[in-house]
Amino acid sequence: MKILVTGGAGYIGSFMVKRLLDENHEVTVADSLERGAREAVDSRAVLIEGDLLNKDFVLNLFNSTDFDVVMHFGAYISVEESMKNPGVYFANNILSTINLLDGMKDHNIKYFIFSSTGTVYGTPQKSPVPENHSKNPENPYAESKLMVEKILHWYYQIFGIGYAVLRYFNAAGGALDGTRGEDHAPETHLIPNAIKAALSNQTFSLFGDDYDTPDGTCIRDYIHVLDLIQAHILTLKKLQEQHGEYIYNVGTGKGSTNKEVVEMVKKVSEREFSVIVKPRRDGDVAEIVADTTFIKSELGFEPKYSDLETIVRTAWEWHKKNSNKE
After folding, report:
1. List of long-range contacts for 195-199, beta carbons under 8 Å, 24+ apart
2. Which residues are catalytic?
3. How far is CA 169 from CA 186, 190, 217, in A?
4. What's the confidence (pLDDT) of residue 324?
5. Which residues of the chain register pLDDT less than 50?
């Protein structure tokens, strides 16, 4: 198949590109490289640099190739940043998707896979959180993702664009051989920041230790990036077999506290580093863990690499190699 991967120079997108190429698909990557890295894109893919907010760029993109599928990873992802610059998040995350959908409509492309987030649920009324849980975004990032989910429904109803929404629960980890990993700029995610503290022997900042959780720190459901990519592959097969609209949580159903993650980084790295507690960040919720019953029963999804030690160990190996190159 001919597949367009937006944001394919980013963390998850680059893993997706490699997997699709390994399965002999033709892959085109569209990325502004504002927050992605050219070197992260597999050399077998075609990389087209440009901004999805530019309608002319998107028009030319769809005129260049007869795509079968669009996988959309091109979004801003920081909760904290979205609380400071909400307009930037609404513009980038929503308007870029509309441009893509309009291009798909005009070129009769019927398969769309969207990277959403478990943060659309807000502070959950129960945990684990099922897909039909009420949606209460508590930050502009989550709100922008939920808005896109609603937009997708109408493009399916009106134009027949089949889609799958994957609500991620904290993607983490690296390639098993240490050749690929997570590197955002700016980096706001817990595991890579803790690893960087271990590598540089710097103080690590923990945001909030007064939550209503067993050790006072936030609880999150971490999914290994390789398992997340497998969920996309299964979702694509589902769309091909049965055209429609689908929403899946992608997680493990188990949570780890921030302190547990920090201790695992210390264990894996065999390094000690100082930890200081800072005030809570705006928009963070105390606990959110995925109910994965639906994706397991519907798609047969079973995480293979998502125990906390494997996640941290694979992330550590990549960051350690990357640090040695500097």
Report:
1. 195/265, 195/269, 195/312, 195/315, 195/316, 195/319, 196/319, 197/265, 197/273, 198/265, 198/266, 198/269, 198/271, 198/273, 198/316, 199/269, 199/271, 199/319, 199/320, 199/323
2. 141
3. 20, 13, 17
4. 61
5. 326
